[in-house]
Amino acid sequence: MTTTRRNFLGLTLLGLTTATVGCSTAAGAGVETKTLRYQGWAGDVTLPELAADLGHLGDLKLEWVGNTISGPQDIQSAATGQVDFGGAFNGAVVKLKAAGAPIRSVIGYYGSDEHAYAGFYTLEDSPIRTARDLLGKKVGMNTLGAHHEAMLGIYLKRAGLSPDEIKKVEPIVVPPVNTEQSVRQKQIEVGVLGGILRDKALEKGGVRKLFSDFDLLGPFTAGTYVFTEKFLRDNPGTTRTFVSGVAKAIEWSRTTPREQVVARKVEILTRRNRNEDPAALKYWKSTGVAQKGGKILDEELSIWVDWLAERGEITKDQVKLTDLYTNDYNELAR
């Protein structure tokens, strides 16, 4: 399922009434769950999957329930109890929390640096050179109301476009695996490419970067994993094991030679038998997580509180930073 900007809050509000009565996260009073349901990403190995393979999750088991291409959909599923944890762009986390979802971020899991960034690409011979050239054009991205739409908005605003002009730029949903082809076939004028998909496109040539999130904001952690408040209350030990295990996987990825990280990811992906092609994993370079062990900083969420409030999507008094996240479960964040 792909969540659009139009239906995201509708889904959110619909799901909130079930968020506290979703699948129980504990087998009984005082007994913490040892199985965590989650959604994966096709053709990729998530940090929790890597942490489990490295042995950093102890006796916890991960139960894969399917794949997603949408961060907002993933955390919505966590809020309503369809999965136990989900991850998304921090702006989507703020938005869902402001709508009343009982969620809290516990660790950063992706970001942007000189190796891991999301770029907005057009054809090499495209006349698009500036933000103003995007008026009336289509920009393809994996989901709306999330990281990439936020970056597009920041880029357009910094270039001096008015709110009315910004509305003339059309962000549309295009599955990441189809984005490069959509740009080359001129179905869209600009497409967002990151990580392995970006590097594969650049290897082929014929595309040119207009801007990237790293160009706009420098290195930053962009997304966090969330649990519901109920899960955190019922399963503090499980949460600590999970968060600290993911934190160790982040640091393992940071300090281990790239070739070894890639080889481990390929091995994991091949072994799980989900009919995926592991070839793209050779392009992996970095998680992009800015802080040690995925520690969350105030500014990594406050920037999106301000951005959403400026857009009129929330009011600043709808959320408190102290309610949005905690580093208490992360042994590496101390």
TrEMBL record:
PROSITE patterns: PROKAR_LIPOPROTEIN, TAT. Residues 74-259 form the SsuA/THI5-like domain. Residues 1-29 form the signal peptide. Transmembrane segments: none annotated. SUPFAM superfamilies: Periplasmic binding protein-like II. InterPro entries: SsuA/THI5, TAT_signal. Pfam families: NMT1. Keywords: Signal. The keyword Signal applies. This is ABC transporter substrate-binding protein. It comes from Lentzea cavernae.
